[in-house]
What we know:
- By secondary structure, the chain is mainly beta.
- The chain contains two helices and 13 strands; from the N terminus they run αβαββββββββββββ.
- Helix content is 12%, strand content 49%.
- The strands form three sheets. Strands 1, 2, 3, 6, 7, 8, 10, 12 and 13 form a nine-stranded parallel sheet that branches. The protein has a two-stranded antiparallel sheet with strand order 4-5. Strands 9-11 form a two-stranded parallel sheet.
- The chain is globular and about 40 Å long.
- The protein starts with a helix and ends with a strand.
Amino acid sequence: MKFDFATSLFLGCTCLPMSISALEKDADGYCLISNAEDLLEYCKNSNNTVLNGRLTSDIDLSSTVGKINGEIVTISSVYSPNSSFDGCGHTISNYYGESPLFDNINRIDNLIIKNAYIKGALYSSVSGFVKKAKVMNNCHFEGVVIGNSGGRVYSLTQGCDTIINCSNYGI
């Protein structure tokens, strides 16, 4: 079967993860995340794939997640067990969700999450920073983590192989 150029272009484009290309990458192949929209895009596209992320500035999520126009708005947690995330010393503030921003990731470095509010779903365990990671290095959490009936509450993480220079402030 022969295809003309337009058909080939269409078929090629429909098979590519087009939204990931919207995130600029640095020389190391890390997606550069500079604002709330970039973070939402990274979270949405990171599930079950290797997609490393790097913050380039502080991010305030107050106009993106939480109670907005009477509706509760949350974002997808990062589930990317073979990926790394480097906060580069930046802060993600005003995160609101039913689960931590990172569900399962290989490594998180140099990240501050502050003024967070995480309320676990009914009968599930909940943690503040990350559910599961192999390494957490220089990560700091400030916020509120609330469990729901039947679940456990972990302030920083439910499971991490190595924790280096990390802190938790909150309830």
